[in-house]
Design a protein that fits this description.
binds zinc ion, 6-stranded mixed β-sheet, Metallo-beta-lactamase, Chain A, globular, 5-stranded mixed β-sheet, alpha/beta, 268 residues, 9 helices
């Protein structure tokens, strides 16, 4: 297995109500949660999983989520702390296209891009209750055109350089880097399992389980397309964690996030 390093890139934070974090359970009240991207490095090969939120987009469309993001917490800012620029990242994999996972895609027009094969079509034609989730379409010229939001098309973006290779089921994108298909939260949602030569595997729930409590109580977020699939996916994540003795990392868990190693520190 190649030497793998994993960096967590701090992307700032947002606020939602407790009833959205814990569907039909709550309690109500503002919950501020972290947003981060995951950089996987194997030698000169770098793959970025998700790209955080775009501050201006959130202020324009969802200001009630009270975004906080310093310059260092933008994708270029976070990469700069590692002495890198977006050009040093050759592969981008989006777990799904909710706005807090694709806001920095505009910096990766040069990169090879992957997602589940159903995610772009869904962003082009979302269910009515998904419109705010899929509101930042700058990641795809095709989606901007399909939704009549061509004002969102970033400078230099074309259909060609915002095209995604659609995948299906579980896929190993780099050696030991397994994208785990966990639908429910979105139609083509992915979690990620990273195996190392000398360390316990890391299992990223992504939005299959926002927090440790979500996974422990099998309580998914209010934002989802198929809650039955969502529960199945959480059970699958639990089973994988046990099978691989993996360390779990949650996507939007402020308490756990405080204890995570953040870039420029890394896991290896
Ligand atoms: Zn999210």
């Amino acid at each position: 297995m190649p030497d793998t390093k994993v960096y967590l890139l701090d992307g700032g934070s947002l606020v939602i109500d407790g009833y959205h974090v814990y569907w039909n359970k709550g309690p109500a009240g503002e919950v501020r949660f972290p947003v981060y991207s995951i950089l996987v490095e194997q030698g000169d090969t770098r793959m970025l999983v998700d790209t955080g939120f775009d501050y201006d987009h959130v202020m324009r469309v969802l200001p009630f989520e009270k975004p906080m993001q310093t310059k260092e917490q933008t994708i270029p800012g976070a990469l700069a702390k590692l002495g890198l620029t977006p050009k040093d990242v050759g592969i981008v994999f989006n777990s799904h296209f909710h706005f807090d996972h694709c806001g920095g895609n505009r910096f990766f027009l040069h990169a090879k891009k992957f997602c589940h094969r159903l995610e772009v079509p869904q962003a082009c034609n979302p269910e009515v209750f998904e419109h705010l989730g899929y509101s930042d379409l700058a990641f795809s010229v095709e989606a901007c055109e399909a939704r009549g939001m061509t004002d969102q098309i970033p400078e230099g973006a074309t259909r060609e350089n915002t095209r995604f290779e659609g995948v299906d089921g579980d896929v190993e994108i780099l050696p030991g880097v397994h994208m785990i298909f966990t639908p429910g939260h979105s139609i083509g949602h992915y979690s990620m399992l990273v195996k190392f030569a000398r360390r316990r595997p890391m299992l990223f729930t992504i939005d299959c389980a926002y927090t440790q409590k979500s996974l422990e109580t099998l309580c998914q977020a209010g934002f989802h397309i198929d809650p039955v699939a969502g529960v199945r996916s959480m059970r699958r994540i639990r089973a994988l964690a046990e099978e691989h003795d993996a360390e779990l990392f949650y996507s939007h868990d402020m308490a756990n996030w405080q204890g995570y190693r953040k870039a420029p520190e890394f896991y290896a």
